[in-house]
Amino acid sequence: MNREKTWQVAVKLTPGVLILALIQVCAVARSAETGSSAPAPVPAVADPCPRSFAAGSVVQNPAALFSSHGVLSVRFSYQHRMDASNRELFCFMTPEGLQNPTLHVKPGDHLIVTLTNNTPAQQLTMTVNPPNCGASSMGPSSVNIHYHGANASPACGSDEVIKTVVNSGETFRYEVAFPSDEPPGLYWYHPHILGLTEHALEGGAAGAIVVEGIENVQPAVSGLRQQILIVRDQEIPGEPAAGGNIPSWDVTLNYVPVLSPGDTGITDFVPARLLMQAGERQFWRVSNSSSDSILDLQYVFDGAPQTMQLVAIDGVPVNSQDGTQPGHPIPVKHFRLPPAARVEFIVAAPPPSVQLAQLITLGIDTGPVGDNDPQRPLATIKLVDGAAGALAHAAGARGGANDDRVGAFSALNTHQRRFAGLRAAPVAVRRTLYFNEKTDLTGSTTFYMVSEGLPEQPFDPNAPASIVANQGTVEEWAVENRTGENHEFHIHQLHFLVESQNNFEINGSHPAPAVTGQYLDTVEVPYWDQNPSHPFPNVKLLIDFRGPDVGSFVYHCHIAEHEDKGMMSIIEVLPPSVAGNSASRIHAIGRPPGAASLK
């Protein structure tokens, strides 16, 4: 679906509601909080969004930028181009020509991003009602940035997406403060303009963020060569029929195309290549930065599954969350990775006797109305000598710093205690949330992210928050899937503890391995089989509001098509000092939007 059509669909979701009109309005071209002068625009790059890798190419780490003295300052030009298949590509370019570089920060660092939207201007069809924080209108060329997984403030100018927009020709300055107890691991950044997220992600506008220091929490990775692997998806020509081995979306691995039989002239999958040395162990850090594609990663030698030593999920090192002891990896034979999720694991190179070693994604049943996600290879492993491997990894830096190895263990990081005591914390409130869909007689489907007791309605940025919570508390949420396709629950600003995965077996699914008992920001809930006598598949989550951040932010399905079409809601976290902010007030969220107790 092209960008203009996506925009038109999004704004027509709810009659009488300009669903995108008031979404993204915050300090455009100025810093409203500080009163500072407007940042200098970032010039457009002459040759933006280069995608020059051929199918079957060797995967290289993205260009990398590192913080210094507690600050990483980056200048991004948001640009686009059309490829040979007439697909629209998007990217964040630095003035030096780096495309979507990996941003390396340390806990406690500040990430300063100056963003200029250099895409061609389109008509600003949506008027933004006051109070304005910059732009007063928006359209299909608008952009912003979400710092996915960061436990950062949702205030304007930080990791805020409900009200932040940058229109063509405008410049905006972000300053994202990573907390000193931010877990070390893999995060990512991407546009989050509601109604346009899917198109931007399909166009490739996403990059990795690495919070440094994982070797001091998980010593098993100390000194290993690392591969930062970003999976993105893009449209396949035509509309693949339901079922069969043609996926709904092509994917790329660090922009190396992984072609499929749906592509012109292609009869079989064409994977990328990853280089390893004989006897080597590598640390693979995988971000599913796809718009819609679900992955189930497996490492195979001649078709036989191999053990992957799981080190971190969604940026959080496993088995070490309270920071009081070193973590230890979890051995798994496959790992389910929904859109927006990240996983980090150690693998061993194949012995020379192995004929074919590959990283694959297993086939996934996404439900009777879900997308096609068949089994396919992502990359073939090629054994090389040390010099050739080092040369290929260094080439990935391309003007940025070289990040081909993890640092050496120095000392256990004892201040990474963000989640200490969460399992034993008293639960202030228990809630039920659910995904739902309704298709009308014309075949148009509306998507809902609903808090039990509230009316079903697609996302409306002008409605009161569906949930009001207290800073300093812990809540338990049961998130149900009441639809015939899989959904992926994501909440901004924080992580949650997965207590349980329930009723997955009713449709032949199984709980995702190594997920229960870990801390995530994105989790999959499989489809319901539509049998009224069967319970809904659900996950139970401990939601941790004990951090310092207050304000309004969103939770939603991270299948971007669903998010764009309304499967999202707002939560407001109030400080304890706010009058009337009590447990009784929180329980009152079951009243209809606009009830006096909600505001």
Secondary structure: number of strands: 36
Q: Which stretches of 5+ consecutive residues score pLDDT under 50?
A: 14-36, 579-599
Largest beta-sheet characterization: 8 strands, mixed
Q: What is the alpha-carbon Rg in Å? A: 23 Å
Sum up the overall morphology in one term: globular
At the first level of CATH, the class of the largest domain is Mainly Beta
How does CATH name the architecture of the largest domain? Answer: Sandwich
Structure overview:
The structure is a single chain. With 599 residues, this protein is mostly beta strands. The chain folds into 3 domains: 3-212, Cupredoxins -  blue copper proteins (Immunoglobulin-like, Sandwich), CATH 2.60.40; 219-395, Immunoglobulin-like (Sandwich); 429-598, Immunoglobulin-like, CATH 2.60.40. 6% of the residues lie in helices and 34% in strands. The strands form 7 sheets. Strands 12, 13, 14, 16, 19, 20, 21 and 23 form an 8-stranded mixed β-sheet that branches. Strands 15, 17, 18, 22, 24 and 25 form a 6-stranded mixed β-sheet that branches. Strand 26 (429-439) and strand 27 (445-451) form a beta hairpin. The model is unreliable at 14-36 and 579-599 (pLDDT under 50).
